């Protein structure tokens, strides 16, 4: 992609991301898409499926991709 250009369609990352809920790593099959968000320059999108057996509660979430890792402080609330 050229700098500042919007993706016309999906453009997945070349490396697979690692996603952690609390202390558990999310299975690779639960990462549905990681890549550029179509039509929005510079915005990446992550589509994940939360495991069905995850108990209700607030879970710290982190994402690692290559040399990048999200900062601490992100949470996902699960309510079945």
Description of the structure:
The chain has strands at residues 11-12, 18-21, 24-25, 31-36, 44-48, 57-65, 68-69, 75-78. It is mainly beta. The chain has one domain. Strands 2, 3, 6, 7 and 8 form a 5-stranded antiparallel beta sheet that branches. It is elongated, with a radius of gyration of 14 Å.
Following the backbone from N to C, one meets helices and strands in this order, namely EEEEEEEE
Largest sheet: 5 strands, antiparallel
Number of strands: 8
Rg, Cα atoms, Å = 14 Å
Q: Estimate the strand proportion.
A: 35-45%
What is the 3D form?
Answer: elongated
Mean pLDDT: 87
Please give the count of helices: 0
Amino- and carboxy-terminal Cα gap: 39 Å
Topology:
Elements: E1 11-12, E2 18-21, E3 24-25, E4 31-36, E5 44-48, E6 57-65, E7 68-69, E8 75-78
Antiparallel strand pairs: 1-4, 2-3, 2-6, 4-5, 6-7, 6-8
């Amino acid at each position: 992609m050229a700098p500042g250009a919007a993706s016309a369609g999906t453009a997945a990352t070349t490396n697979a991301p690692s996603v952690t809920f609390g202390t558990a790593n999310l299975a690779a099959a639960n990462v549905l898409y990681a890549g550029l968000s179509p039509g929005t320059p510079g915005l990446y999108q992550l589509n994940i499926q939360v495991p069905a057996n995850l108990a209700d509660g607030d879970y710290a979430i982190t994402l690692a991709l290559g040399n990048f890792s999200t900062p601490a402080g992100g949470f996902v609330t699960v309510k079945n």
